[in-house]
């Protein structure tokens, strides 16, 4: 903990990702999971969304070079999709520490949610890695004054003759928000008459405003990925919950600033004036539903009136400890007295693995 505190003071950032803190072992676990699951008879193709400083990419390439059959490392490609030019440059420097990696690695500086950047649809099997990406993606806030009123979009407008910003509520019109509401089932379309009547009475007697943060950025990203890479396998890791969140609403974010090595949490998301970190928890049940929706299975399930359609993807959610015990080398992050920070201190993070069903034997 002292070591971690000193790191934060030196770098003045709010959060070090596990892949940085536990290099190379964290990334080695991901590489092993890919090796066990991928069809190694064809060239291995990996995409990483938001590669940070390049640590994950370098460590995975290291692991393949050291542990995979020669043909796997020799024929593989690793592409980082990075929106930040400065991070893209840093990733090339990190991976370039091993000269042979550079012939297998490239960085594309672009927005992964923009379909045009992907070019033609790639029908080949591949892996997509997203580490601590979902918590930083845009979310939209919706509001309802009670338990039965329709959900409304929350817009922000400047107060006239003031620097203050206030919320304004408008009917749902954004297609991404409307899709999210439908995927989650927040439109109450499937409720029985008895439940609907009970909610209506309750809203009259005890009206309770509702707020929910919708992962529209996640939906947009997965739509683009499923369109561009229809045979992709996905591995994502993120926070399943965040402690000490004081901002109201389902899936509300933690908004914090770092000053002199100390973290200051904000009670209002409107306090984030450009120097705050915003972390959203990932609802992994909802992530799975969005994944199935973007693969087309949920739509087929809704439209089919006869046989139940077969799921197009097989999914698995594991907490970090279970994932690393299965695929990693937990002894490498264990102290002499048995304490293991990777397994013991990251209980609020999970891994989500999603593969096409036709990849499963």
Automatic annotation (TrEMBL):
Its main location: mitochondrion. Pfam families: Methyltransf_28. GO terms for molecular function: protein-arginine omega-N symmetric methyltransferase activity. It catalyses: L-arginyl-[protein] + 2 S-adenosyl-L-methionine = N(omega),N(omega)'-dimethyl-L-arginyl-[protein] + 2 S-adenosyl-L-homocysteine + 2 H(+). It is found in: Mitochondrion. Arginine methyltransferase involved in the assembly or stability of mitochondrial NADH:ubiquinone oxidoreductase complex (complex I). Belongs to the NDUFAF7 family. PANTHER family: PROTEIN ARGININE METHYLTRANSFERASE NDUFAF7 HOMOLOG, MITOCHONDRIAL (PTHR12049:SF5), PROTEIN ARGININE METHYLTRANSFERASE NDUFAF7, MITOCHONDRIAL (PTHR12049). This is Protein arginine methyltransferase NDUFAF7. It comes from Elaeis guineensis var. tenera.
